[in-house]
Write a structure and sequence with these properties.
Layout (H helix, E strand, L loop, with lengths): L8 E6 L7 E7 L5 E7 L6 E6 L7 E7 L5 E7 L6 E6 L7 E7 L5 E7 L6 E6 L7 E7 L5 E7 L28 E5 L2 E6 L7 E3 L3 E2 L2 E6 L17 E3 L6 E2 L12 E4 L5 E2 L12 E4 L3 H5 L8 H4 L7 E4 L1
Parallel strand pairs: 14-17, 15-18, 17-19, 18-20, 19-21, 20-22, 22-23
Antiparallel strand pairs: 1-2, 2-3, 4-5, 5-6, 7-8, 8-9, 10-11, 11-12, 13-14, 16-17
Amino acid sequence: PTAAKGHNYQSTVIEPTCAEEGYTKYTCTVCGDNYTDERTAAKGHNYQSTVIEPTCAKEGYTEYTCTVCGDNYTGERTAAKGHDYQSTVVEPTCAEEGYTEYTCTVCGDNYTGERTAAKGHDYQSTVVEPTCAEEGYTKYTCTICGDSYRDAETQKVEHTYGDDGICKVCGKKAEKPASSGLRIEVSGDHCVVTGLGSCKDTDIVVPAFYRGLPVTEIGASAFDGEENGACKKITSVLLPEGIEKIGSYAFYECNALTSLTLPKTLKSIDFWVFGGCGKLKTVYYTGNLEDWEKIEIPEDSIYESNPLCHGAALVLI
């Protein structure tokens, strides 16, 4: 027989931790046999404390955490402080209920309680009578909150026209059918009134359209009383929206003409349009004064080109 070789131990030092002891471990490099020796005591935890203050709803405590291994635990618990509620009364309105709102002055937590019913509206009625321009109705307005609504609507009433054809209530000029028989010529994409034609009317109403095209101009000498004696019988002329120009001598010597209605669309009046129209008393205009002042009138014949030259009154409608 031969003698045993004996173990060849190598040592490994295991350092102590906070909770466990340290030691040296001996292990045979040949057969793996091992044992421990030289034990050292555990170091113990190095706890640091953090105080968590109590809130309104949660308890406070002290948290202990080991600076070496991170182990932790809680202790020294303190009761929650409880909320410090202050109340705000929200009064009911006509449409919404009232309530008391409670809000914590510390953390802002809130809740509502003590609800009260909405008061309801206190409506008073005002009757708005219909006019020729607008429908009538009854308006109900709450005396508390100002809420309002309309009910019991009534239709517009008829216009009250004076002898001049103007409504005494709203100022609207009576609508008349377009005169038939006027001589109108197509010029490209628009039309021009060129004469009285076979029309027998003394109250002339120029149409806004002819053969599907807009009428935009009163041609030169279209109603010249010197050239056509029938034009001397014309007492009123209504030009529709869309008319942009009145040509020279268009109403020359229409010495029975007393009323003229011009549209807002009118841009220019040419030479001597109203020469001899001494009886013209009223000019109705659908625009405003600023629009009126923009109408181009020749300076060298302004007296007989301006429809107001014989003392006619300008009436905005």
